[in-house]
């Protein structure tokens, strides 16, 4: 038994989240792709069966009221809220992340202009130039449809790019490729100092590390529920609108679900108060209630404990890679500093595509991001330290 | 046995769609609310269980490619296409109806302006003034964000309202409240004659009657899959963009899923060719694959046979109501002419809310639309003539 194997054993023995693994359906694969699609929580299949057979099949239309379908978007939003540091009543679930980026960003531009007395002086949307592409595309559409210019800026230059013309800023909390964690408190403060509004994309941080939306005064945020929140493939995303902005939040997608009186069938749109204002059309119940069941794994878990384990996992992975992998064979593009690291490790190597295929064949599942990145996500609720050691060992063997 | 009971027996015996009822999970309730939420097709629970337990739980991320998740939106779109008279490659499934109304209507305005050489002369969106509210709200947003004026017009006055300023027109094929079927061929032709583009909302006609999108040269259409298509609560909607318009379709929601090279992770948006261009974010797999299973009930069924039975059902319901219900107690607001009738019957009576509650208690499930409408939907795949006779009889007893 190697020294690192022994260390993994000790770390696993001391892991207070270790028991959570039993709440997931897992085989003997080392699953390091939970930052793409979270594993299946064991509570989900039974819940989904109940939703389909009883709630839909037997109660049918009555489930909209009696079964709690109608209020699911805000109820499940409140279940997610503490994981991203939000008090209740500010998060609503529904639509895809992309659609929510559009709502949030157009909403942010309108907030900025309202604050400026309705003028069009604020005519720039700043967006992280290294963002996951969909954010950039939708920021482009939001800019076009609000008469703004889109200004892509590397995250390190965002602060310098802000000014009187900045209406809204769209930033990623954790970079999807490198795993770099951006400084949400200071960037939020900088955007506010410029009189602009910020939208944070939490896809790679929600459920992985503390976000502190309320604490840091974030304006709007969107996030994904099928990565670290294990909601299932394409599960609905969430939208956060800070409580004191909700009355002024002016959504570009005003559907009947966000009406103050949705069943009044009134021709005039009158937006609801609260997080409900972020809703649009009929919620996707099957996926939404699967997500609700998936969120039960968070019972009794603090996001701080998750973060502590996440850092321990990525530290240990880097240690194992350094020990096992021949020097110079991979280059780590994820920052070493804890304050700059999300819950993944990205390693660059020239033949990354082939290497990842072979890893997957050998039961170590990460993913490949073009052109040359091996991406490994560490989900503290079900990944252990022995998994990490095995992953690094198999990687080293394939790279030898 | 009354004469109408005997007639129902005869009609049921001659009904070539009668066997389809066995493909649904139904109890002894007369379910006349399939125009709100379709009944559960028997194939769905098993399929959903496979999607959750095997495709998500075991194959996990591999299902995106190996399990056909990635291509589901257009594959399921092609399954819906023949039901609305569309050749393959023009329908894509995803997002809510509301979100698709926004895509289609902004797209239509942009098409009109492109056709006019890019000018802003076409600055009016005409919308059915009696529309389901969400269409009106989103048309308002589309107008606001494209520099148009929204002009609500009663359907009968649409033709007169069209002109050089009309960019786009949003119409309902069947009115959600009255069940009135609008004349899609002639209204489409009128919109085209004015140089404008039409968006049809097929929520209350898809799966209930022939639509003939291709035949009548419709530009864009959206529709719901949880009513007559039985896709489940909040199942994803569909978007039709006519083949020869797809290259010019300029979506206001350009997500990574509609990129020509979605995994290229490119900063510049380059829209995909074909129906895929209507996609936005990651598809909601659980709901989408439940819908795919639900669509299997259409195997061997023609929409013409469905329409023939639908008219027979509503004719027979009106006959029974006339026979059983005391004269003057209800007023039918659904047109008698077949050419103007969808697949529902709406009856007005002053105490409609209370009456519907009592009907539901007695196993006859329709719904109530404020202020005074009893709404009964007739879904030919699982409603029979004996159901219809019973519904009218119970209604008469409650109204007596």
Automatic annotation (TrEMBL), chains A, B:
Biological or metabolic pathway of the protein: Amino-acid degradation; L-kynurenine degradation; L-alanine and anthranilate from L-kynurenine: step 1/1; Cofactor biosynthesis; NAD(+) biosynthesis; quinolinate from L-kynurenine: step 2/3
A GO biological process held by the record: quinolinate biosynthetic process
Pfam annotation, one family: KYNU_C
N6-(pyridoxal phosphate)lysine carried by residues: 227
Residues that coordinate or bind pyridoxal 5'-phosphate: 97-98, 132-135, 201, 204, 226, 256, 282
Listed cofactors: pyridoxal 5'-phosphate
Cellular component GO terms held in the UniProt record: cytoplasm
EC number annotated for this UniProt entry: 3.7.1.3
Role noted for this protein: Catalyzes the cleavage of L-kynurenine (L-Kyn) and L-3-hydroxykynurenine (L-3OHKyn) into anthranilic acid (AA) and 3-hydroxyanthranilic acid (3-OHAA), respectively.
Subunit structure: Homodimer.
Protein name, per record: Kynureninase
Organism: Streptomyces caelestis
């Amino acid at each position: 038994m190697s020294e690192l194997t022994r260390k993994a054993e000790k770390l696993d023995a001391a892991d207070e989240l270790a028991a959570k693994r039993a709440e997931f359906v897992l085989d003997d694969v080392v699953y390091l792709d939970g930052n793409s699609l979270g594993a299946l929580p064991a509570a989900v299949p039974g819940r989904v069966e109940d939703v389909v057979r009883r709630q839909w099949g037997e109660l049918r239309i009555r489930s909209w009221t009696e079964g709690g379908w109608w209020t699911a978007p805000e109820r499940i939003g409140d279940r997610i809220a503490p994981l991203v540091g939000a008090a209740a009543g500010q998060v609503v679930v529904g639509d895809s992340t992309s659609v929510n980026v559009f709502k949030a960003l157009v909403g942010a531009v309108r907030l900025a202009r309202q604050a400026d007395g309705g003028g069009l002086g604020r005519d720039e949307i700043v967006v992280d130039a290294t963002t996951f592409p969909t954010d950039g595309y939708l920021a482009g559409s939001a800019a076009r449809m609000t008469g703004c210019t889109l200004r892509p800026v590397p995250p390190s230059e965002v602060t310098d790019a802000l000014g009187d013309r900045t209406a809204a800023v769209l930033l990623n909390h954790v970079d999807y490729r490198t795993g770099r964690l951006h400084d949400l408190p200071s960037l939020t403060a900088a955007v506010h100092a410029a009189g602009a509004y910020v939208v944070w994309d939490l896809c790679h941080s929600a459920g992985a590390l503390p976000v502190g939306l309320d604490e840091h005064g974030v304006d709007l945020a969107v996030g994904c529920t099928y990565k670290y929140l294990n909601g299932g493939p394409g599960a609905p995303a969430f939208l956060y609108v800070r409580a004191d902005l909700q009355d002024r939040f002016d959504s570009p997608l005003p559907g009947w679900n966000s009406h103050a009186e949705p069943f009044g069938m009134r021709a005039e749109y009158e937006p609801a108060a609260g997080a409900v204002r972020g809703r649009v059309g009929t919620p996707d119940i099957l996926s939404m209630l699967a997500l609700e069941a998936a969120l039960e794994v968070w019972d009794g878990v603090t996001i701080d404990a998750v973060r502590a384990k996440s850092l321990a996992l990525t530290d240990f992975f880097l240690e194992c890679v350094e020990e096992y992998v021949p020097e110079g064979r991979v280059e780590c593009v994820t920052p070493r500093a804890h304050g700059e690291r999300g819950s993944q490790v990205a390693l660059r190597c020239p033949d990354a595509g082939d290497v990842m295929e072979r890893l997957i064949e050998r039961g170590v599942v990460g993913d490949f991001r073009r052109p040359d990145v091996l991406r490994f996500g560490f989900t503290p609720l079900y990944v252990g330290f022995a998994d990490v050691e095995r992953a690094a060992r198999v990687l080293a063997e394939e790279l030898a």
